[in-house]
Amino acid sequence: MSDRQSLQVCEEGAGRLDRFLSKHLNNLRYGALMRAVRKKLIRVNGKRAYVDTMLVVGDTVEVRFLPMLAKEEIALTTKDIAFIESICIFEDNKVWVCNKPCGLAVQDGTSIERSLDALLRAYSHHKGLSRIRLVHRIDRETSGVMVCAKNRESAECLRKEFASRSVQKTYHALVVGHVKRDGVIKRALQCDGGLQDAVTRYEVIRSNEAASLLKIVPLTGRKRQIRRHLASIGHPIIGDQLFLKGEKKLCLHASSLCFNLWGGCTWTAPMSAHLAHMTKKYKV
Description:
By secondary structure, this protein is an alpha+beta fold. It is built from seven helices and 18 strands. Strands 7, 8, 9, 10, 11, 12, 15, 16, 17 and 18 form a ten-stranded mixed beta sheet that branches. Strand 9 (133-134) and strand 10 (143-149) form a beta hairpin.
């Protein structure tokens, strides 16, 4: 690995610097990349950059002293291997699909000792596989289906489909209060690029005065969109520490992902044990 690398920002790379680095330097630890930003080892157009620096087409990102940032694989235990294999719900030569549990971070970061990305990186090496790659993310507190790529070609196909917003995502959430009817929330949200349109459709599965179980389809993909939208109509998700005190674990589950790729495919993750337990607790 050379001491430095220059990357040109194309249309797909426009956006926040941290996301650009995660995508284009995914052989390096996320935490190490963020430290490199803070230590001024990463520059944009020759100038100091920050984690939230916004990149536009044509920008040049220079990363210095790459050997210092090389990833150290975590020590994979027998328990880790059993865990990874237990959450896998589908695997072929293109993808590895899992039912991520609540509380497992998707990527490395500050104060995160274990992440799905780090576990898969070590697991791939252990099995002698090409690296299993992240192509999308869900919140650490959210459980449910995640699709990872088993090679670069599959990763690029999946990323393009996510970018085109043609992936249909379905969630289930247990929220506070009695939701009387199905609805659509159309409310702009403050995001990295400013105020952006956001649309969430929901259907009531079961409901009582204490809580409601909803099926949710986000029609846009803003940060924490479902959590923010439901809180905005007075029905925050039970266990959402951003908006509600009380329960500690978020009752939000990514139930399915539907793609047009490869002739069409849908992957479904069974409802988490935690969400099933909470629906019984609230008698929904």
